[in-house]
Amino acid sequence: MSCVPSFEAIEDEISTILDLSDEELTEEEKEKVDEYLAHLGRQEAEKIDGFCKFLRFEAQRVDALKAEADYLRKRAKSAEKKITYLKGLYANIMKDKELKKIQGKVYSLSLRKSESVFVNDESIDTLDEKYVRITISKEPNKTAIKEALKNGEKISGCCLYEKYNVIIK
Questions:
Q1: pTM
Q2: Is residue 169 scored above 80 in pLDDT?
Q3: Arithmetic mean of pLDDT, 35-45
Q4: Between 5 and 161, whose confidence is greater?
Q5: CA dihedral 41, 43, 46, 52 (to 10 degrees)
């Protein structure tokens, strides 16, 4: 494999040679100039091929990295689902056994009671405007609904329920 100068250096050399006047050269010099130009042409072609090969390799690498990112995103989503499932499982066990905290050697699990609002999807369009936040899409204002339900108001399609969350410290 020969040492190929930079593309810019090859182009500069070709430009310099092409600027020479043919009248100043002998036939022998013209032949040497033509040979040298052919040599520079081969170097230029080799440089272009190497560059294109590198670009193609990099494009394949980009595709592979994007595919790996998609794969890792799917694995992360799967792991998140597993965490949610396992936390729910432990929350239910702790709730059933009336355990508020379990201490391990390093970690502890505690059960914290919180309240959430469930709004039936069909009810969103019938909610009073004070219980709705307007965004690009319509969604219930669960904070306002929760407050109203706690104050004894009845809101169609909405109810207050308790849930338990596992806290890892």
A1: 0.51
A2: no
A3: 88
A4: 161
A5: -80
**Residue 70 pLDDT:** 97
Q: What is the 3-state secondary structure (H, E, C) of the chain?
A: CCCCCCHHHHHHHHHHHHCCCHHHCCHHHHHHHHHHHHHHHHHHHHHHHHHHHHHHHHHHHHHHHHHHHHHHHHHHHHHHHHHHHHHHHHHHHHHHCCCCEEECCCCEEEEEEEEEEEECHHHHHHCCHHHEEECCCEEECHHHHHHHHHCCCCCCCEEEEEEEEEEEC
Contact 160, 105 (CB under 8 A): no
Q: How far apart are CA 145 and CA 116, in angstroms?
A: 10
